[in-house]
Specification:
Blueprint lengths: L1 E4 L5 H14 L14 H12 L5 E7 L2 E10 L8 E8 L8 H15 L4 E7 L3 H9 L3 E12 L2 E11 L1
Parallel strand pairs: 4-5
Antiparallel strand pairs: 1-2, 2-3, 3-4, 5-7, 6-7
């Protein structure tokens, strides 16, 4: 398993990975097929992220197959540049196999090099696998976003979590 930062040439494979993760999970923000993004749009998004010193996309790659990602998007104002918001997605067949842990370890090393002080994310309360990964990685619950998501015809709370470096 290799963890690396994304390159512009990864645009199509990354787009397909995100679509597959969204199709396999009840807990991503977008439902399967809800987000229509073409290769050119994906390429532009990758370029925009990689140009920012406090933003990055990390990929988990098994041989030549992308199996997971972690997106870190940094604050844009002087008061929030020290903070990044995280989004992680892992293919169903690779969950529970240490991929998330490797992604977080790689991202944290990068964050410390960039002078990032705060990592934050949200997780649907019923997402026990995600919650376990985040707690294992040192994240703490800071609050609850009540009824913030509508999943399978019911409202679901989210935890707001953070980790200080």
């Amino acid at each position: 398993m290799q963890i690396r930062q994304i390159k512009a040439a990864d645009a199509n494979k990354f787009r397909k990975l995100v679509q597959q993760v969204e199709a396999e999970s009840d807990y991503m923000l977008y439902e399967a097929g809800e987000r229509a993004i073409n290769v050119e749009q994906q390429h532009a998004m990758i370029e925009s992220i990689t140009e920012q010193p406090n933003a990055a996309i990390f990929l988990a790659e098994e041989e030549t197959e992308l199996v997971g990602y972690l997106i870190a998007v940094g604050g844009k104002t002087k008061r929030t540049r020290h903070s990044v918001y995280l989004v992680i997605g892992i293919l169903a067949g690779f969950r529970g196999r240490g991929v998330g842990t490797l992604l977080f370890q790689t991202m944290e090393a990068w964050a410390e090099e960039q002078g990032i002080h705060r990592l934050e994310l949200t997780v649907a309360v019923p997402n026990e696998g995600g919650l376990g990964l985040y707690k294992k990685s040192g994240f703490e619950i800071e609050g609850v976003k009540r009824n913030s998501l509508y999943i399978n015809q019911r409202y679901v709370d989210e935890y707001f979590m953070a980790k200080l470096l």
